[in-house]
Amino acid sequence: LIHGIVISLPFACPELLAAPSHSNADVMVKEGEVPRNLVAPHVSEQLFDAAEGAFLLRGGNRSARFLAQNGTEITFHRNRYCETDLFFHQLLYPVMAAILRQRDLLTFHASSASNSNGAILLTGDSGAGKSTTISQLVSRGWFLQADDLCVLRLSQSEGLEVLPGTEQVHLYEDSLARLPYSTNHLPRHDWHRNKAALPLNATRLPQPVSRIIHLSVSDSPGINVKRITGQKKLKFLLASLYGPVLPRELQTAQTIFLRSLRKIDIVSITRSSDKWSMDEVLDNIIHD
């Protein structure tokens, strides 16, 4: 069970929760033949091809080739030097994101934590400190909602809600050192820039999005906080999607955003590159 859908796997995956025994599978994962290229893809890059209803990931010698189709099926072909951890990472992030987009869900390159007021969604460029900030919130009593890949949908009240993802975050060594407990026992993954996977206290229910926060880094001193308003919200949200996003998926995203735009509070927080001002960042998130 991940991001609100049930997937059927031909192997054990310790990062996932077991689905209820009576559940029907939404997505079937199987081993089989996978082409090296898609025929006439809309988008083609070194690592992937994407078309309507199909996403092909070329994971490299240390992983596998994956083909995600129609939001219901993932086929994989392990390569010669396939490593289990890297295989799982590619399956649960870029490949799963493609399946979810095919199912008309919104995929964000973001991390999320929740409390009694709902969930915050933390977006930003790689290295901005999204996972570090989320781990600090959880150490202060919040619950992990999802890390790196966040999946949103329109709720019955026409607001956005974020679905529960995996129950761990990936952190650099310096971020692990800031936590109030020992993490020396955790394995480090060279394929993930030597980050470690840290299990955290997570929620297993969808949570309404209370705020979306964009975290960035600049050469300016201190913390700069700015609210995103008006039509700038739509541009901001579209830029935060976990891609590649194809035309039909983009149209779905715009429709959902426009229906919920007034209810979304978006804040930009820029921190100094010279100092990791975690306490100031957290203060602006918690008390805003």
What does the model show?
The protein has about 290 residues and is an alpha+beta fold. Helices cover about 25% and strands about 35% of the residues. It is built from 6 helices and 18 strands. It has helices at about 85-100, 130-140, 175, 230-240, 245-260, 280-285, and strands at about 5-10, 25-30, 45, 50, 55-60, 65-70, 75-80, 105-115, 120-125, 145, 150-155, 160, 170, 190, 195-200, 205-220, 225-230, 265-270. The strands form 3 sheets. Strands 1-2-7-6-5-4-3 form a 7-stranded mixed beta sheet, covered by helices on one side. Strands 8-9-16-12-11 form a 5-stranded mixed β-barrel. Strand 8 and strand 9 form a beta hairpin. The longest helix has 19 residues, at about 85-100.
Q: What order do the SSEs take from the amino end to the carboxyl end, as H and E?
A: EEEEEEEHEEHEEEEHEEEEHHEH
Structural class: alpha+beta
Uncertain stretches of 5 or more adjacent residues:
none
Major sheet: arrangement of strands = 1-2-7-6-5-4-3
From the spread of the alpha carbons, the general shape counts as globular
> What is the mean predicted local confidence, pLDDT?
87
Q: Span between N and C termini?
A: 33 Å
Radius of gyration: 19 Å
Q: Percent helix among the residues?
A: 10-25%
Tally of DSSP β-strands: 18
How many helices does DSSP assign? Answer: 6
* Main pleated sheet: 7 strands, mixed
- Beta fraction: 25-35%
